[in-house]
Amino acid sequence: MALLAHKTALQPTQAQRQLLNQHCDFARNAYNAAHSDFKAGLEAGEFRSVYDLKKLFNQRKREVFPDICDLSQNAGKNAIHNFHDAIQRWKSGQNHFPKRKKHNSRSSFQIDNGVDSVKVSSEDSTHVILPKIGKIRLSEKPRWTGSVRRAVISRTAHRWFISMLFDVDVPDPPDTSALPVAGCDVGISALATMDDGTVYENPRALRTQERKLKRLSRSLSRKQYRSGGWWKAKALLARLLMRITHIRSDAHHQATHRILQGISALGIESLSVKGLMKNRKLSKALADASLGGFLVKLKYKAVRRGIRIVEADSFFPSTKRCSSCGYVKQKVSLSERHYHCGVCGFEADRDVNAAINLKQVASSTDETRNAVGASVTPTGVGWMRGRRKIKPNQALIHFATA
Ligand SMILES: [Zn+2]
Fold first, then answer.
1. How far is the centre of ligand 1, averaged over its atoms, from the C-alpha of 349 (Å)?
2. Euclidean distance between CA atoms 146 and 261, whole angstroms
3. Mean per-residue pLDDT for 257-262?
4. How far is the CA of 339 from the centre of ligand 1 (A)?
5. 325 near 341, Cβ under 8 Å?
6. Cβ atoms within 10 Å, residue 232
7. What is the whole-number distance in angstroms between the Cα of residue 347 and the centre of ligand 1?
8. In this model, does residue 289 exceed pLDDT 60?
9. How many angstroms separate the Cα of 283 from the Cα of each of 137, 184, 287, 324?
């Protein structure tokens, strides 16, 4: 058994939207009440437990929410439990002291009360049944079947989503050992370049929407704080930011899906995204590509499909090394888009050469991630490898952001 999540959009009615918003307010209030009570306890030299915090909130909640009978009490209870978890992480030195929750365009609440308190409609699984709120239509059928362990409902801009955690019987991943090995160079100019020359383009969502983004942020800053126009401008900006995120993640899902088809292992470079972000010239383009999110998707999909991901050490010279004879150049500048080996005459696109190097790392290792370049066999001497471009599917982008 494994716990797998599926997040999908909800299609609530107008009345349900109002109820969902009330639940968000309720959960945020409970969290902030627990925050104040815990701080007051600390000042009095008392370390309040989660039960104390719940008791204190329950004594007062009717004053703040007169029509509390219409709301599921789980939203408040779970918020206090989440605050307590944050306190535990603070106590163990893992995190800073939790902050109070602000009212903004992103809010959420957790509505379940243990296993099976939230259910997917049994007839056709097109609806989810929530305590106190009732049946809400789902935008798509859940990917998994099984009991729902946890259900978190969230709002981003004007849309509502539900993330459900299912208890799933996962079949063993298929045996892929007979399939070929591939290499993949992850970068900024192209999202991913494969050793066979296939290029997955970066949608560069931020760059294409930058003018719109600037216009909307400027219009927001001109409005009077918390006036009617300010809220409107804020909502429009939130919608655009959500659209950018969706364009990006859609391209990532499509690329990772295609990359992992019909292979047994994939060689990649171990990218330290945090380290790269320190480079101020590159940081904007890097943040736009959000390579970290891409690698996360690549890795979890590989596990499910029984594909081995081989990360080359960070000092492996994937761009400097000639994939044909193994000669390592002293320096390759960022503007050099073409690799030419002065020793054996090998020529290739810079990223394709790097991808072939990474493929060789993947095929020369079994389970370990080192042994770099030691037993590498040269392939394809002296011929030019071209690039075949694949653009993210336009139709699907529209679907994801509609
Ligand atoms: Zn060479």
1. 13
2. 27
3. 94
4. 10
5. yes
6. 13
7. 8
8. yes
9. 40, 21, 6, 32
Which tokens in the block code for residue 127?
Answer: 């609806």
**Residue the block writes with tokens 């918390």:** 226
Nearest to 166 by CA among 197, 202, 128: 128
Tell me the CA–centroid distance for residue 181 and ligand 1, in Å: 22
Spatial CA neighbour of 26 closest among 153, 160, 146, 214:
153
pLDDT tens for 349-388 read 999 999 999 999 998 875 443 333 333 333 332 233 344 4
What the block records as the tokens of 101 is 């929750």
Place of tokens 């290029």: 199
CA 118 to chain centre: 24
Mean pLDDT in residue range 286-311: 86
Give distance in angstroms: CA of 261 to centre of ligand 1.
Answer: 30
Interval between CA 342 and ligand 1 midpoint (Å): 7
- 80 CB contacts (<8 Å, ≥6 apart)? 30, 31, 34, 50, 53, 54, 57
Q: What stretches of 190-236 adopt beta strand conformation (E)? A: 190-194, 198-201
Q: What is the DSSP-derived secondary structure letter of residue 193? A: E
pLDDT-based confidence at residue 89 (cuts at 50, 70, 90): very high
Who wins on pLDDT, 190 or 19? 19
CA of 328 to the centre of ligand 1 (A): 8
| pTM of the predicted protein model | 0.79
Is residue 330 a contact partner of residue 173, using CB atoms and an 8 Å limit? no
- Residue 315: pLDDT band (50, 70, 90) is confident
Q: How far is the CA of 351 from the centre of ligand 1 (A)?
A: 15
Q: Of 260, 283, 261, which Cα lies nearest the Cα of 273?
A: 283
Q: Please state at what angle helix 291-304 crosses helix 280-289, rounded to 10 degrees.
A: 40
* d(CA 184, ligand 1 centre) in Å: 20
What is the per-residue pLDDT for 394?
Answer: 31
Tell me what the mean pLDDT of segment 154-158 comes to.
92
